[in-house]
Structure formats: structure tokens, C-alpha cells
Design brief:
Strand 5 and strand 6 form a beta hairpin. The longest helix has 22 residues. By secondary structure, the chain is α+β, with helices and mostly antiparallel strands. The termini are far apart. Helix 2 runs antiparallel to helix 4. About 20% of the residues are buried. It has a domain of about 120 residues. The protein has a four-stranded mixed beta sheet with strand order 3-4-5-6, with helices on one face. The chain is rod-shaped.
């Protein structure tokens, strides 16, 4: 290889190195960065981000355990727990009565729990005042099942009510205070208590 060939090869290498340098490492060429070029060097250059003003904080869930009463496989009244979300329910007392009317669940039925409250029973209203509570049920509550069934369903209601409030509770049927209930004419002492069904 003569001198001119060596010189030509040297010039070619220099040009190649210069091309690679400016292509990969020059200001206008391709270069590796993790988007640091878009981050201001001075933090004060960042504009403040306004928080949305219409964001409503989520309600804190407060779970309260309420009790409802149903019959177990031996016929004795047993309490079952229900979790009332106070942030969702208007009243945990009302929730307990609603759960009582619809109980037992399919799983509880499979475990032998039953209820004497007729399936057609509707809650017409529940009014909670400062000094008392009024439960108004539809007439389906007192229909069918005989005297023993009526005593059991009243006991279910009384125990559930008293387990979930310290206020006096009064039972109404179709808007009238239920001092006598059912075709058998069972007398009820009001407000409801463990002695309400005593002769």
C-alpha cells in the first residue's frame, strides 16, 4: 500500500468517525436520554396544578353490627348478625327490620334457620323520633300460620327491635297501633318488650 492509498484510507476513517460522532452524539443527532431534556432545571419553572374544586371526598364506611332473630333447626330463637354500613343506610335500625322481614338468606336456610314472618309482609314505614320508634307493617304480617306461628313472629320482631335500639318501640299494622293482632285476637302490650305477649 503506497502513501496515497494510506492517506486516502486515513481520510476515510476520519470522515467516518466524524459522521458517527455528529450523528449519535451531536446536538441535533440521535442521543439517549430519559426525557430529561423536557424537565426544567429549576423546579420553580413548573406551573402549579390546580386541584379540581368539585371533587367530593368519599364517605367513610362505618360498619355497625345489627342483630336479627330467626328460629334455628330446634325451633329456638337465635340471633344472626348483619353488617350495616352507616354511610349507606339511612338508619341501621331500619336496616335491621328490613333484614328481619327478608330473612333468612338461602345459605341460612340450608343451615336450618327459618322465619315465621310471612313472605308477603311489607314495611309501610319506620319512624324514629327522639323518644320512640314506630314500625308500621302490612296486614300480611298477622295472616296465616296459626297462634303459635303468630307468637313466634311477634317474638322475632320484638327481640330484633329491642336488640337494635334503647327507645320504646310501637308496632302498627296498616297505620293502626296493634294492641290486638291476628284472627285469634292476641293481645300485645305496647311499647314492645319481652313482656308484651304475657297474658
Amino acid at each position: 500500500m503506497n502513501f496515497s492509498q494510506k492517506l486516502g484510507l486515513f481520510i476515510l476513517i476520519v470522515i467516518s468517525v466524524a459522521y458517527v460522532y455528529f450523528s449519535f452524539f451531536g446536538n441535533n443527532g440521535f442521543h439517549f436520554s430519559l426525557e430529561k431534556d423536557n424537565v426544567p432545571s429549576d423546579v420553580s419553572e413548573l406551573e402549579p396544578i390546580d386541584e379540581p374544586q368539585d371533587v367530593v371526598p368519599a364517605k367513610e364506611h362505618k360498619i355497625k353490627v345489627v342483630k336479627i332473630y330467626v328460629s334455628d333447626s330446634t325451633g329456638k330463637l337465635r340471633s344472626l348478625n348483619r353488617n350495616c354500613d352507616a354511610a349507606v343506610e339511612h338508619s341501621c335500625f331500619q336496616y335491621a327490620i328490613k333484614e328481619l322481614i327478608s330473612a333468612p338468606s338461602a345459605w341460612e336456610k340450608s343451615k336450618g334457620f327459618t322465619s315465621e314472618i310471612p313472605s308477603g309482609t311489607k314495611i309501610l314505614s319506620i319512624r324514629e323520633g327522639e323518644g320512640s320508634v314506630m314500625i308500621d307493617l302490612s296486614s300480611a304480617f298477622e295472616g296465616g300460620g296459626g297462634t303459635e306461628s303468630l307468637y313466634i313472629r311477634l317474638s322475632q320482631l320484638i327481640k330484633t327491635a329491642k336488640a337494635n335500639t334503647n327507645l320504646p318501640v310501637y308496632l302498627y299494622i296498616n297505620g293502626r297501633q296493634a294492641d290486638v293482632i291476628g284472627g285469634e285476637g292476641i293481645m300485645i302490650k305496647q311499647p314492645l318488650s319481652e313482656r308484651s305477649l304475657d297474658g
